Amino acid sequence: MNKLYIGNLGENAVPSDLESIFKNAKIPVSGPFLVKTGYAFVDCPDESWALKAIEALSGKVELHGKLMEVEHSVPKRQRKKMSTGSLESGTYYRVKISGRPVVRWKGELLLP
């Protein structure tokens, strides 16, 4: 994965800020920085450069008073699967637990 997510950016971060940070760290990029409010994306030439960028910059470089987070960019579909705990097939399960007694607290434990 060569695409990087750069997070924890200030609202006034611009592409030239990121260009100079990557240039100073001697990390090449293979395209423009796509900057949104609070985050950005960029492509590295290959996986080894992406890993070097993560290692050199994530949590170590400050931009406008905030430490940048640099990590592999994960497509939205995969992020959603990871956050819902779904299986590879796209299904996930919920377990409903019922019939448990209600426990109340009032200075000391009172059982129902």
Automatic annotation (TrEMBL):
Gene3D superfamilies: 3.30.70.330. The keyword RNA-binding applies. Residues 2-75 form the RRM domain. One of its GO terms (molecular function) is RNA binding. InterPro entries: Nucleotide-bd_a/b_plait_sf, RBD_domain_sf, RRM_dom. It comes from the Eukaryota. PROSITE patterns: RRM. The keyword Chloroplast does not apply. Keywords: RNA-binding. This is Insulin like growth factor 2 mRNA binding protein 3. The lineage of its organism: Eukaryota, Metazoa, Chordata, Craniata, Vertebrata.
